[in-house]
Task: structure prediction
Amino acid sequence: MNIKHFQRMKQTGEKITLVTCYDYWSARIIAQSDIDCVLVGDSAAMVMHGQRTTIPATVELMATHTRAVAKGAPSKFIIADLPFLSYRKGLIQAMEAVEQLLQAGAQAIKLEGADGNEEIIRHCVKSGIPVMGHLGLTPQSVHQLGGFRVQGKEETAAKQLQAHALTLAECGCFAVVLEMIPGALAEHITAALPIPTIGIGAGAHTDGQILVLQDLLGMTTDIEPTFVKKYLEGAALIKEALNQYHQEVKQKVFPKQQHTYENAA
Ligand code: KIV
Result:
């Protein structure tokens, strides 16, 4: 998979699948799956580090997670999130952040919003770095948005979202994530854009879908957004395995002979 495939899949109508990934061992499993593409999302701050928002994510943190994912899934196309403010402090600092993520193993970067990001997007693209946009609920702006809530419900907000999506395409983004917006709006943007849209909580008519890995595996037990489908009861299965191990040790059932080294003959 590369950015040419994204474009081709938009044209042929084949849906694009993405999941988030933050670590080596799950990257190894994803590498053996059919999933098209991996995002090292700044949601790592929340999912892996227990933060309440993505704001505490830093470039160093994102580079560390990207390095682990690139080691585990070298065959997958890896996109890494530029974290909070790392691309809003001027071109040089932004490019230093991009450099760290690419050197950690990302093949593309993602950033949130359109307004004020035109220069950095154009500069990355001219420098040979693919950029993915992100509109709708942009979690790095959670305080400005007044919480994690559906965006683009009112006509003015919907029009602004459409305009921002076109700006991102014009600046050279190869795809754009649409997060938590009404399905009809996502469908309209998808039809109007020359680049693929990747939805999360944006209905069925985007060019692809992304989910947080831990959400789709049923590992997250605190927040369960409406748009998530659990493909596994991961947390329950893991708890069951842990309790079984605990019981077997207590009852002296584990370890058995086959788990024990013999003396040399
Ligand atoms: O950080 C993340 O996980 C994301 C996805 C939800 C698109 O940006």
